[in-house]
Design goal:
The structure is a single chain. By secondary structure, the chain is mainly alpha-helical. It has a domain of 50 residues. Strands 1-2 form a two-stranded parallel ribbon.
């Protein structure tokens, strides 16, 4: 994940800028060869953004970032060129949107 912006960490009291990341959490198998763990993505999203902000994932894969956005009141734009992975992401994100009462619009 890449994050570009002026350095907001000290101003917004999010602490110092993260310079490393480690996680032993395993992701649930969902049909994608490399799904990302929800907890790992949740930590990173909350560390680098605020509620209401827009998150772009140009390599959406199975949609983990979209699921985490639905749970944390972020707008989400996901791009995935492989239609089979897009369908996996679409199902997971729609389920998360229904669970958390959020609306994320998906386009093919």
């Amino acid at each position: 994940m890449l994050y570009y912006e002026k350095d907001p960490y000290l101003e917004t009291r999010k602490g110092s800028r993260p310079d490393s990341f480690s996680s032993t959490e395993r992701a649930e198998k969902n049909g994608h060869p490399c799904p990302k763990p929800i907890g790992q993505s949740n930590w990173l999203l909350n560390r680098c953004s605020f509620a209401g902000e827009k998150i772009l994932d140009p390599f959406m894969g199975s949609g983990t970032t979209g699921v985490v956005c639905a749970a944390n009141d972020r707008d989400f734009i996901g791009i995935e060129k492989d239609i089979s992975y897009f369908r996996i992401a679409e199902d997971l994100i729609k389920s998360a949107s229904a669970k958390y009462g959020t609306f994320l619009e998906l386009f093919r």
